[in-house]
Amino acid sequence: MIVTEKNILELDKRLPNVVTKKVPYKLFNHVDFLWAIEVKTLLYDNVLELLQKFDFKQNKSKH
Fold first, then answer.
1. pLDDT of the residue at 1
2. 25-59 in b/e burial notation, b at 16+ Cβ within 10 A?
3. Which carries the bigger pLDDT value, residue 37 or residue 3?
4. Cα(18)–Cα(14) distance, rounded to whole angstroms?
5. CA-to-CA distance for 5 and 26, rounded, in angstroms?
6. Region for 51 from its dihedrals, namely left if φ exceeds 0, alpha if ψ lies in -120 to 50, beta otherwise
7. In terms of pTM, does the model score above 0.70?
8. How far is residue 42's CA from residue 12's CA, in Å, rounded to a whole number?
9. What distance lies between CA 2 and its chain's CA centroid?
10. Quick one: CA torsion of 53, 56, 62, 63, rounded to 10 degrees?
């Protein structure tokens, strides 16, 4: 791990509109973003779902 959970939580307090979700795999690290076999289900599906919700809210407010 490059940063600690404590650092992440501290940054979370300082930034507006932060959404956090812990990857349900204790040993997940930055290399896994590229090489983990289950990265799609562990991470990317959740990220895409969040982006779709955000996009929907943005489009809804424009009309």
1. 53
2. eeebeeebeeebeebeebbeeeeeeeeeeeeeeee
3. 37
4. 9
5. 12
6. alpha
7. no
8. 21
9. 16
10. -140
Q: What are phi and psi of 38, to 5 degrees?
A: -105, 25
Round to whole Å and give the CA distance between 61 and 12.
26
* Alpha carbon 60 to chain centroid, angstroms: 23
- Chain centroid to CA 23: 8
Could you tell me how many residues make up the chain? 63
**What type of residue is 42?**
L
**pLDDT (0 to 100) of residue 63:** 59
**pLDDT at res. 43:** 92
